[in-house]
Structure formats: structure tokens, C-alpha cells
Amino acid sequence: MLFTSYEFIGFVILLVALYYVLPKKAKWPLLLLGSYVFYFFAGWKFLFYILAVTIITYVAGILISKNKKAADARFAEMKALDKNGSGNPEEVGKDARKRYKEAQKAKRRHIMAWGITIALLILAVVKYTNFTIYNINGILSAFHAPKRINFLTIALPMGISFYTFQAVGYVIDVYRDRHEAQTNFFKYALFVSFFPQLVQGPISRYGDLSTELFTPHTFNGRVVERGLQRVIWGYFKKLVIADRILPAVNTMIDTPENYKGAFVFMVMMFYALELYADFTGGIDITIGIAEMLGIPVKENFERPFFSKNIAEYWRRWHITMGTWFTDYIFYPISVSGPMLKLSKWSRAHLGEKVGKRVPVYLASFVVWFTTGIWHGASWNFIVWGLGNFVVIMISQELEPLYRAFHKKVNTDDSKIYTVFQIIRTILLMSALRLFDCYRDVPLTFKMFGTMFTTWNWGTLGNGALLGLGIGKADYVILGIGTLMLIGVSMLSHSGSLRDKMEKKLPFAARWAVFTILLLVIVVFGAYGQGYDAAQFIYNQF
User: Angle 507-524/221-235 helices, nearest 10 degrees?
Assistant: First the structure.
């Protein structure tokens, strides 16, 4: 049941209608039922995976919470006995209490470790088994071994990376005592499986989502209106822009030998537009559906293509993923015991200037390696992740030179320089995204190199672009659609465009705008008889 299917639209309409007519007690169970029905249509066998991850992390959370409550009660009892002088100091004294507290925390840490390890192992088996076999076979081939390991037939469950990370974050937060464990299994199952964000996120935190998810919301016309507006805008991005430019992107990357030089630059630009419209369009649909139900979901994008550098870009792009990796990987590694020892050793032997960078760079390396392999079981994605790491680290090391340059040239108030920075960031990110497109790392580097060795830019103006599977009318629609994306982003600079429209336009005028947009989707959307709706790009994660 794809987001772009008529079945899904009917499913959402029915669910929203039922949600507002059913009694309060039935609202969150309806969302749970709807979420599992949605996932059932994605493949009933996949239900076992999401159930397994849900059960494992639920049990881990319960055990951690129970241990914490029991340990706190026992600690208070020991303290009271020590204060009253009615207990053995060796058993209830300050040192004994400290040992007890540390021992119980270690137990909770072991429970957390086992819970998240098993959950991540499920993800690893279905997502990385064949990648592991591929690399083992590569090693066997290098040593001329006669045998090879056969690949396994494993279907990747929809959204498994998203709901696994969401569940793992929940267990870690329970361990960190940010919130108590959810004792109602079915409510926790809803948190893990909430259907709008199963396809491509955002990766929600339990503390952010749980309160509104389980609260029985009453019908509010304004809330439903705003959610529906967001959904329409998401479908415009997906159907009018992303799916329209998709054939051209596929044509160029499926036969790379025929599309070198200038066409690689077009792949960069076309894929950047496709990915942005596809991913943000899906997130708009997700947030809009949740908003129609009265449930706020975290924003995942903040005008990323207006970023001045890659570090800023990643603070604006797929925000919930970036903060997840920062909170649950970067910071724990940075302050871990081994890393603190390494930091101390580095400062002593490599000097303060170099030594203080080692832990940060190592933690960043792990984060970007993980980010790459999370996006896909392929060396392309790993190199893409490490490419981001290298560019960001180089930028940080050159920061003193940048400051000196800006001070000398005085670029602070220069709009021209700001535009240069934005264009530079778009080009850098688009170049790195070529690893998403071509089938392996050597081919990606080879194709990138042809932009400078194959001088065929003139062919772009001689009708070659019309041989990519889309016609003149498609380019006109894409041009207008892209201008609309840029315009909306610019108008959203100082706040939500919907908020501004709500303040300045009457109800009829607002809906005239969105009715026109809906008609544009119906008339110009890339679908029709025999249309095979392309899955959202992030479905595979």
C-alpha cells in the first residue's frame, strides 16, 4: 500500500473519519490496528520482524525500569538504616550504598546492551547478510579459493531501519532515566509502528511522540485543514516533480557508458531535485496525516539547500536521523572510558592541539561510517558517508584560514558570497550523492572524472535531453515546479508559509490556492493507466 496509491488515500480517509467518530478509549487502539493493517499490506511476513523488535525492546525497557525502581527503594532503605544507626555500616554505609548503586546500574546497562544488540542483530541479518557474503567472496576470490558462499534470498522489510532505531532510542532513553518504560505493550507497539512514519521516518523519540499519540483528540477543523494542506503539498512534490524526473535519472544511470561528461552533471542536478522532492514530499505526507489526527511529529527538514556548508546542510537535512546519531552514537563514544583514555594519551604524546582532535574525529568517523551503511548495504554508501566526514573535517581544519579570509575581504554582509556558498554546498552534496546513483565505487569515480575529460556539453542544447524519456512539456512542468519549491522555501525563511497564509488570507482564498494545487497534481502528476508508482527512495532503509 504505497503512499501514492488510491488504496492508501482511501485508507487514510477512512481512518481519520473513524478516529473522530469512535469513543475516546478506542482512538489509540484504532491507530494501532490501522498501523498493523498498513504494514500487513506491505507484506504479512514482515510483521514478524516489527513484532520481534517491539517485544525485545519492550521487555528490555520494562526490566530496566523495574530494576531502577527496586534499586531506588533499596537505596533509600539503606540510607535510612544508616542514618538511624540500625544497620551494619558495612552493609548500609556510604561505601556500601555506592557499591550497590553501581552494581544495579551495571545490571541495567547489561539489560540495555542485550536488548539493543538483539534488535540491531535482526536489522543486521536482513540488511547486511548478503553484503557480508559479497565481501567474503571477494576475499576468497583474491586468494583464488575454489568455493564461494551462496547469497541468501532475504526480503528487506519496509522501514526496518527507522522503527529499529526508534525502538533502540527508546531503550537507551529508559536506561538514561529520561522517561519510565511504557507498561502497556499495545501502546508501546503503537509507538514503534505508527504507520505514517514507517515508510521513511521521521525517527521519533518516545518522549516527544507518546503523549499526543495516546491522547484522544477531538475533531478540530483547523487542525485537519492544516494537515490536509501539508499532504497536498507533499503529493505535489512527489507526483509532479520527483516521479516526473525519475525516468531521466534512470535512463542516464542505467546505461552510464552512453551518458558521460555533461550528462553526469545532469545526473547530479536531476537526482538532487528528485531526492529532495521525493523525500521531503514523503515527510510532508507523513507529518500532514499525523497532523490531521492531532498528533504533532518532528520536522525533518529546514530548507537544506540554503545551507552555506555541508555541516550546516546536515543540521537541516533528515534532522531526526542526524540528532539520533549525535545523541546515541557520537556523544556516548566521545565520553566513553576508552575514548577518555585515548584523549589523555593523545594530548600527552601528540600535543594539546592534535590530541584534543583525535577523540572527536574518531567518534565522527564512526558516526559517518554508520550513517553510510545505514543508508544501504553497499560500499557506495559507506564511501558516501566517509566522503561527508572528510569534507566536514577538512572544513573544520581550514576554519582559521576561512576566518582570516573573511576578515580581510569582509564577506559578512556580501549577498554574492552567500549565494556562492549555497551553490558550492549544493554542488558538493550533489557530487557526493553520485554514490547513490552508480552501481559501484570505481564506476562512480570514473563517471565523475568524465565531467572533466569528456567535453560534450554542446550536446545538451542539441536535443539530447529530450532522449532521456521525458519531453519538452515535462521540462516545462519541472521548471515551474522547481521555481515553486524555491519560492516556498524563500517565503518560509521567517516562519511557516501556512501560518502566514492563515493570518493573511481568508478561508476561501486559502482553499482556492490548495484546490488549484490539487488540480495541478491531478492534471500534471506522473501517473495514469498502467502507471507503476515509484516507491519513495527511503522505503529501502
Answer: 30
Q: Which residue has the higher pLDDT, 322 or 82?
A: 322
The dihedral over CA atoms of 142, 147, 149, 150, expressed in degrees to the nearest 10, equals 120
Dihedral of alpha carbons 73, 77, 80, 82, sign: negative
Tens digit of pLDDT for each residue in 453-502? 988 888 887 888 888 888 899 999 999 999 999 999 988 888 888 888 88
Of 251, 265, 253, 254, nearest in space to 460 by CA: 265
Sign of CA dihedral 21, 25, 27, 30: negative
Measured CA to CA, the distance from residue 188 to residue 206 in angstroms comes to: 9
Is residue 133 within 8 Å of 20, Cβ to Cβ? no
- For residue 197, the tally of other CB atoms under 10 A from its CB is 27
Long-range contacts, stretch 487-493, CB < 8 angstroms, 24+ apart: 488/233, 489/303, 489/305, 489/306, 492/303, 493/303, 493/306
Dihedral (Cα; 192, 195, 198, 204), 10-degree rounding = -50
- Full-model pTM: 0.91
Return d(Cα 104, Cα 90) in angstroms, integer.
18
How many CB atoms are located within 10 Å of the residue 94 CB? Answer: 11
CA distance 71 to 104: 7
508 against 383, higher pLDDT = 383
Report residue 382 as a C-alpha cell: 559507506
What span, in angstroms and rounded, lies between the C-alpha atoms of 502 and 14?
27
Q: How many CA atoms lie within 13 A of 445 on its CB side?
A: 7
* CB-based burial label for 311 (10 Å; 0-12, 13-18, 19+): middle
How far, CA to CA in Å, does 447 sit from each of 248, 263, 391, 438, 450?
Answer: 17, 9, 20, 9, 5
